TrEMBL record:
It comes from the Bacteria. Pathway: Aromatic compound metabolism; beta-ketoadipate pathway; 5-oxo-4,5-dihydro-2-furylacetate from catechol: step 3/3. This is Muconolactone Delta-isomerase. Residues 1-89 form the Muconolactone isomerase domain. It catalyses: (S)-muconolactone = (4,5-dihydro-5-oxofuran-2-yl)-acetate. Keywords: Aromatic hydrocarbons catabolism, Isomerase. It comes from Streptomyces flaveus.
Length: 93
């Protein structure tokens, strides 16, 4: 299944710089692992916001949940998930 995942980072602004940087580094590392596993397909930044839009592929919603919950910033994310279905125009003749 494919999912469109929108995340907004809600890390408090008074978070110490060293903690913030460690979390960012951990996010990058975990995102690369999810890419290597074929779960994270694409990732875009939302200009002007501390937000992303990602295309994920998972066997089911539970696997997607586990992948998202494995992100270091998980508890500071506002997340919206949309399951995607193939449009008839996208199907091969």
């Amino acid at each position: 299944m494919e999912f469109l995942v929108r995340t907004e980072n809600t890390l408090p602004p008074d978070t110490p710089d060293d903690v913030r940087e460690a979390l960012r580094k951990g996010e990058r590392e975990r995102a690369m692992q999810l890419r290597e596993a074929g779960i994270l397909k694409r990732l875009w930044r939302v200009p002007g916001r501390n937000a992303t839009i990602g295309l994920y592929e998972a066997a089911d919603p539970a696997q997607l949940h586990d992948a998202l919950a494995s992100l270091p910033m998980w508890k500071w994310m506002d997340i919206t998930v949309e399951a995607l279905a193939t449009h008839p125009q996208e199907k091969a003749p």
